Amino acid sequence: MITINFNKDFYNLKAAKSAIKAYKNLAGFELKENKKFIEVILKNPDKAFKKIIKDEFCNYVLAETKNVK
Amino acid sequence: MKNKSKKQNQIIIKVNPKVYPLEAVYGASYVFLDRAYIFLEGDPKKEIRVRLKAKEETGKGRLKNLIGEFQNELLNYALRNEISKRNAKIREYIVAQALFASNPEEFKEPEAEYKKDAFNIAAPWEEKYGKKSKKIRKRSKNKIKKK
């Protein structure tokens, strides 16, 4: 299980949802939200991408955030 | 702008948001997405921390190059942002002119309602009701005399 916290000042919830949609075939996702952070939990990630999935996912969210803004 | 290496293969760049706006940070980060993993942290009003993690194992030299390039890109985007803000009005004007030139009829102002004279106010009395009768003419003459 991998937990990623995205600071809401920099990252967009819409972007996170969009990234989850794009990565849904590679892992199970859980999305939580609090006042300051968007919390994404990755469960059972694909073995082939286990090492890089977190970083790639973060990049994807950043790219989507930039596009949304 | 300060750099601080934390772990191997990654480095944190501290950015002053008063010098480089958040838009510039997004722009520069976007350019580097294919070369590094980028994480934005910190406070967008006080200090933005950009964590750069190289996609492949790299030496310190290459990591330093990456930082330098990122900082250049940051400057590039900051300037671009500033110019874009300054030229916003003239850009809008040029686009409006281009749109107008492509189809001027679409931008024609509709004719004002009063010009149509729906109640025929502008037409003279004679045209509307014919010539004045003798009685009316006498009355109007008497009125003028009294005054």
Short description:
The complex is a heterodimer of chains A (69) and B (147). With 69 residues, chain A is of the alpha+beta class. Chain A has helices at residues 13-23, 53-68, and strands at 2-7, 28-33, 37-43.
Range of helix content of chain A: 25-40%
Q: How many strand elements of chain A?
A: 3
Secondary-structure element series of chain B: EEHEEHHHHH
Tell me the overall shape of chain B.
rod-shaped
Multimeric organization: heterodimer
From the N-terminal CA to the C-terminal CA of chain B, the straight-line distance is 90 Å
CATH class (first level) name of chain A: Alpha Beta
The chain pair with the largest interface is: A-B, 13 and 17 residues
Strand order of the largest sheet of chain A: 1-3-2
Q: Helicity range of the residues of chain B? A: 40-55%
Q: Biggest sheet of chain B: strands side by side, in what order?
A: 1-2-4-3
Strand content of chain B: 15-25%
Q: Return the average pLDDT of chain B rounded to an integer.
A: 84
CATH architecture of chain A: 2-Layer Sandwich
Protein architecture, described:
The complex is a heterodimer of chains A (69) and B (147). Chain A has 69 residues and is α+β, with helices and mostly antiparallel strands. Chain A has helices at 13-23, 53-68; strands at 2-7, 28-33, 37-43. Chain A has a three-stranded antiparallel β-sheet, covered by helices on one side. The longest helix of chain A has 16 residues, at 53-68. Chain A is globular. The termini of chain A are far apart. The mean pLDDT of chain A is 90. By secondary structure, chain B is of the alpha+beta class. Chain B has a domain at 2-89: Ribosomal protein S6/Translation elongation factor EF1B (Alpha-Beta Plaits), CATH 3.30.70.60. Chain B has helices at residues 22-31, 60-86, 88-102, 113-116, 125-129, 134-146; strands spanning 2-5, 10-15, 36-43, 47-54. Chain B has a four-stranded antiparallel β-sheet. In chain B, a hairpin with a 4-residue loop joins strand 1 and strand 2. Chain B is rod-shaped and about 110 Å long. Chains A and B meet through helix 2 of A and helix 1 and strand 3 of B.
